[in-house]
Amino acid sequence: MAFRAKDNKDKHSLLLFSYSKDKASNSILAKAKYLLYIFLFFSLWLFLLFLCFPPSSDLPTPSAIAGGGEDDVNRPPEKCDPDIAPFYIYDLPTRFNLALLRRCRSLNIYTDMCPHVAHRGLGQPIPHPLSSSGGAAAGPSWYATHQFIAEMIFHARAERHPCRTLDPSSALLFYVPFYAGLYTSSVFRVSDHALRDALAVDLAAHISSHAAFRRRQGRDHFLALGRTAWDLMRSDEASSPDFGANRLLLLPEVLNMSILTVERHPWKGDNQFGIPYPSYFHPFSAAEVAAWQAKVRRSKRSHLFMFVGGPRNATDKAAVRAEILRQCGASDRCLRVDCKPGSPKCHDPDRVLAVMKQADFCLQPPGDSFTRRSVFDSVLAGCVPVFFSEHTAYTQYRWYLPDRAEDWSVFLGSDRSGRIEEELSRIPEEDVERMRETVIEMIPRVTYAHPNASRSALWFRDAVDVALIELTKHVRFALHTA
Description:
Layout: H1 2-52, H2 62-66, E1 87-89, H3 98-101, H4 114-117, E2 124-127, E3 138-144, H5 150-159, E4 173-175, H6 180-186, H7 193-208, H8 211-215, E5 221-228, E6 258-263, E7 272-274, H9 286-297, E8 303-309, H10 315-330, E9 334-338, H11 349-356, E10 359-364, H12 374-380, E11 384-387, E12 410-411, H13 420-425, H14 429-442, H15 455-458, H16 463-481
Parallel strand pairs: 1-4, 4-5, 5-6, 6-7, 8-9, 8-10, 10-11, 11-12
Antiparallel strand pairs: 2-3
């Protein structure tokens, strides 16, 4: 009996153990099923999200925005140019610069800007003009740079500049990296002026709230713009035409700031200073510049003059353009790159520079406004520019030009523009060679070096360095006389 009782007890224990084991197994299985359901639910949700809202192709990749190149961590510290004061760069909310690039397809009503904002605004690499491979390989210093992108390139150069300070208390200059030109071109067709001005007003309110700005009412602050000042000086008077622009440069907070722009207002731009349009060459070293200058000096100039451009509709500019096109077409000593609507010729760097290097003189009438990017293309090609308005260069880029206009250019007023070939033929050959050499020597100071270039390798002052030197002088004088 005792044995039977013990046996029954063992059987009962075994049954309890088996029941507990089954219960535990069922619990684990239930949890596994629950986790599987959750996994499948979120997988389906992510799939539907990706299907309905695919990643935007307008968003540049991080490498496209940053530009790649030498790592700042591995770069040895460089000495600041003694003529440039320490400058501080505001760390603006991204809505004022980088966030704009995420909608690069809509930054310009005429052009998809996504290829152009790549590589910190340098654009897409192009074949090196010095290459003997027939243009098969892209040169690291040559890019199809957009004419209205200077604000991005200036920002990229300034960020890695040896005179930049991270301590605002030690700075004399304060740079506000607002991509105002890109924003302005994106809202040209917005009919509501309040919406068109919104980001500009936002910027003015944001920057004026800083103690560094209030200390001197912005007199030591500056903006760099890739578009003409006209585009940011809209007047709301009924008699004034609406250029599709905003009012950034007329806002009270901005009036004391220094404005760097590819075209200043000739009559209302007391605080505006012209900086070069970017061309295609962004060198890493002085050796690259010297090699290009030597190439340009050896170019065979088979024609007297040339013109890159097309007709215009504006009354005053249309007449000058029409006359130039007529005279160039009638002369076998003139080369012409015809910029018809939709034609890629005028936007082909290799084509433009190749033609310019074949002529002694490059005709530079006003474009849609007074200035043209072509002026700086002609300097890069060693082609002496011929101007028909003083506001195309002489009143614009005083920081960058030789003191005497006749040393590097020709001016044909209305009394001489009707006989271009005759006037240019009168200039002695030795004077043409002297002017050409002066133009070639101007190349470094009107060129935007590559953002990754080091000062120790450049050995020259590029367009950004010149601007910072002149800003240092301007702000020191303004603060001394205030």
